[in-house]
Design brief:
Helices cover about 30% and strands about 30% of the residues. The protein contains 16 helices and 31 strands. A hairpin with a 7-residue loop joins strand 29 and strand 30. Its EC number is 6.1.1.15. This is Proline--tRNA ligase.
Length: about 575
């Protein structure tokens, strides 16, 4: 490609509202352009990267035996109503009516559509197992689109669905896809971890893993063991914290009432009583599907709403409003305590193992000392209702401890079981001639999100540094002066030879100052740069790798041979 013809404009500055580095750099380098909040055009450079990512995904999917199809983006609302997700999915589902007032949704995912399709196409165990996948634009009405491609309202996704006879078959399909995902993200140049996760609105009763690209801009926190391969999303992570036996009741002093005027927060109370947060209990009043419950945590721990939601089998968990707290307990915010509270009480395991604690006194301007969970919270439900903390022991091995990292979710694999096949009546005849529901798995990759995740990991102060496998071009040819016949002659020769080899090459044939060309080259981030300058007449060029910016004067033919050996493997990926 000749750069003078490339539809791409570089910017020296990014818009002020571009917060993420990847968003800034891809805008500045001309890979994407914003049409509306969370909606982007992929410019020719960006589209080439997308196509190379798609090539890798298709290659690995096909190797697993998966078959590609393409399903409609418009989905009849009755399918979602049949599965029970039409209302449960929430406002992120984009709903609309056609001219006949029939309700539709723009697909954020395709479990209902694929299940209905397979229900009509496969009726015998002899045609199983089967895995089908597509690469397609998805739609979600995000409340707050941000970080460019990392959280958009329209995005490119690979979604795959497996159909098996039984759980054993699903297990094989699941782990085959798990391994394929590891290869995909490795080939794309990502540093990532596969972590245990929650199934969210996709649902299912089996296992699920997220593939998290490690990056500080990531919206997810993951807990990783320092010794073994344990890794989990914070909402799912458990702790190997050793259990402590509570003190014998006879050793516990009586409850003591303490006047704490105007003291409402943990920080204020620790300072007032000269105690540590881990010597306190905090009582949180929540609404689980509109029913009030109280959750008790140690003062230094944070609530995990997802764990509470699962423990209570609730569809929704929200915090009670101040007036609801006063109505339930008779006290204002800041003084609620667990003793004699007239709502169902759920005590986190770490709080239940405390010998004694300071807690709210259920009276304005008062707290109480010497609260004993064993003595004073009889009849409560004990469970895991908190986030783990960094440094806690690993739940899987005895040697490691948990460290925290930020991550960008780039892929997710689920064991759905029969959640959708039962609701949608998707059945096949088993070897005994009896009908039974398909056992399903679901596997997604955020294709467009990979671009941002890669850039978040591969950049410097000058611009992007694309990994070789997904770079828009492999070689950037830059003649210093397009008016110099020797330089343009060598550049044209290299360009033609590289094209014959099938190497992706961009020739900067613009009549621009060298400084402009070099800055644009740094920003765009093509792996190898060949500069044709004053020594072109002697057949010498400057060979530079974008990652190191180390320059080397070599013969033009040697540059061709180096490039041939390095990039022939990747030739044709964007075509």
């Amino acid at each position: 490609m000749r750069q003078s013809r490339l539809v791409s404009t570089t910017w020296r500055e990014a818009p002020a509202d571009a917060e993420a580095v990847s968003h800034q750099l891809m805008l500045r380098a001309g890979f994407i352009r914003q049409l509306a909040a969370g909606i982007y055009t992929y410019m020719p450079l960006g589209r080439r990267v997308l196509r190379k990512v798609e090539h890798i995904i298709r290659d690995e999917m096909d190797q697993t035996g998966a078959q590609e199809l393409l399903m409609p983006a418009m989905q009849p609302a009755e399918l979602w109503q049949e599965s029970g997700r039409y209302s449960a999915y929430g406002p992120e589902l984009i709903r609309f009516q056609d001219r006949h007032n029939r309700e539709f949704a723009l697909g954020p995912t395709h479990e209902e559509v694929i299940t209905t399709l397979v229900r009509s196409e496969i009726n015998s165990y002899r045609r199983l197992p089967v895995t089908l996948y597509q690469i397609q634009t998805k739609f979600r009405d995000e409340r707050r689109p941000r970080f460019g491609l990392l959280r958009g309202r329209e995005f490119l996704m690979k979604d795959a669905y497996s159909f098996d006879i039984d759980e054993e078959g699903l297990d094989q399909s699941y782990w085959a896809m798990y391994e394929a995902y590891k290869r995909i993200f490795s080939r794309c140049g990502l540093r990532f971890r596969a972590v245990e996760a929650d199934a969210g609105t996709i649902g299912g009763e089996g296992g699920t893993h997220e593939f998290m690209a490690l990056a500080e801009i990531g919206e997810d926190t993951i807990a990783v063991c320092t010794h073994c391969d344990y890794a989990a999303n914070l909402e799912k992570a458990d702790s190997g914290q050793p259990k402590h036996s509570p003190s014998i009741l006879s050793e516990v002093p009586d409850i003591e009432k303490v006047h704490t005027p105007g003291i409402r927060t943990i920080d204020e109370l620790t300072a007032f009583l000269n105690i540590r947060p881990d010597e306190m209990m905090k009582t949180l009043l929540l609404k689980a599907d509109q029913k009030l419950v109280a959750v008790v945590l140690r003062g230094d721990h944070e609530l995990n709403e997802l764990k509470v939601k699962h423990a209570l089998q609730a569809s929704e968990i929200t915090f009670a409003e101040p007036d609801e707290i006063r109505s339930a307990s008779g006290v204002p915010v800041g003084f609620l305590g667990p003793v004699n509270l007239s709502v169902p009480l759920f005590v986190d395991r770490a709080a239940a193992e405390m010998a004694t604690a300071v807690a709210g006194g259920n009276e304005a301007d008062y707290h109480i000392r010497n609260v004993s969970p064993q003595r004073d919270l009889a009849g409560c439900t004990i469970g895991d209702f908190r986030n783990v903390t960094e440094g806690e022991p690993c739940p899987r091995c005895a040697e490691g401890s948990l460290t925290f990292h930020r991550g960008i979710e780039t892929g997710h694999v689920f064991k759905l079981g029969t959640k959708y096949s039962e609701k949608l009546g998707a059945k096949f005849l088993n070897p005994s001639g009896q009908e039974q529901p398909f056992v399903m798995g679901c596997y997604g990759i955020g294709v467009s999100r990979i671009l941002s995740a890669v850039v978040e990991q591969h950049y410097d102060e000058s611009g992007i540094i694309w990994p070789e496998a997904i770079a828009p071009y492999h070689v950037h040819l830059i003649p210093i002066s397009v008016k110099n016949e020797h330089q343009t002659g060598v550049a044209r020769h290299l360009y033609e030879q590289l094209q014959k080899m099938g190497i992706d090459v961009l020739l900067d044939d613009r009549d621009e100052r060298p400084g402009v060309k070099f800055k644009d080259a740094d920003l765009i981030g093509i792996p190898v740069r060949v500069i044709i300058g004053k020594d072109a007449e002697q057949g010498t060029v400057e060979y530079t790798e974008r990652r190191t910016l180390r320059k080397e004067a070599i013969r033009a033919e040697e540059a061709l041979e180096r490039i041939r050996q390095r990039f022939t493997l990747f030739s044709g990926n964007a075509n």
